[in-house]
Amino acid sequence: MKKRELGKSGIYVSELSLGCMSLPHDEQEGKNIIDAAIHAGINFFDTADLYSNGRNESVVGTALKGRRDEIILSTKVGNRRIPGEEGWRWDPSKSYIMEAVKDSLLRLGTDYIDLYQLHGGTMEDEVDETIDAFETLKKEGIIRQYGISSIRPTVIQRFLSDSSAVAVMMQYSMLDRRPEEYFSLIANYGASLLTRGTLAKGLLTTEGLQRLNETKGFGAYELEALKETVTAIHSLTDDIHTAAIKFNLAQPIVASTVIGASTTEQLLDSINANDKEIDPYTYKSIESLLKVHQYDQHRLN
Predict the structure, then answer these.
(1) 260: phi > 0 → left, psi -120 to 50 → alpha, else beta; which?
(2) Is 51 a catalytic residue?
(3) Which among 12, 51, 96, 112 is annotated as catalytic?
(4) pTM of this prediction?
């Protein structure tokens, strides 16, 4: 599988990567999926301390035991669980990050993290303190690089302008092109894009037409426009899964498109789709159907 560099970090990640949030809690089932991913050439695995109250990191750590040198490992921080309270609180403070990373390392069964991402962000954050935490961890060798996972352009721009972040994770797909407005900004700061939501909750797979009956809209698409667009894409290709992946990877700023899977079969579907190509004429025909929306909130202008 081809690899691309994360920013200018010297870290090369597979074009298709595994988003681990959907992994089953059963450690053997999770290991089977991760083993299949590594066998196919996937080397980038993304999780977060938020997922399943940390259980997801433990499943990933168990599955990767003995194979740490084969992979690039990413996790996220910023959502803090308070004992005795429901849910999580947002906490991007240096003190919390410096403690949370220890717990993530323990669950993941490793002594370093390749990419540590801020899992969100607001304009009210003390961003200098947050960045100082990441820079300190980097100097100590606990993390190799860091980035941010957010869909807020204002938050992303401020974080990139004040840091040496190499990656931005954003929801991006044929049905959500809002990030495109800020591709040049991200590139100018020397960062790469990691895309999530590539398959648009299954709308951009062979099950897409059926899934239309289960949704009220997607992104900036209201239901009728969504139905029209997804139906039209399906009419142009019998391999919409491949088209969805190749659409993201056609963007030079994209280092990897992060695909989730809760079963080995789901993962193999994406791997097989990535191995195929889509002819240029069909690609252009599909692209002409797609609307380019913009974010309504958190804008830079």
Answers:
(1) beta
(2) yes
(3) 51
(4) 0.95
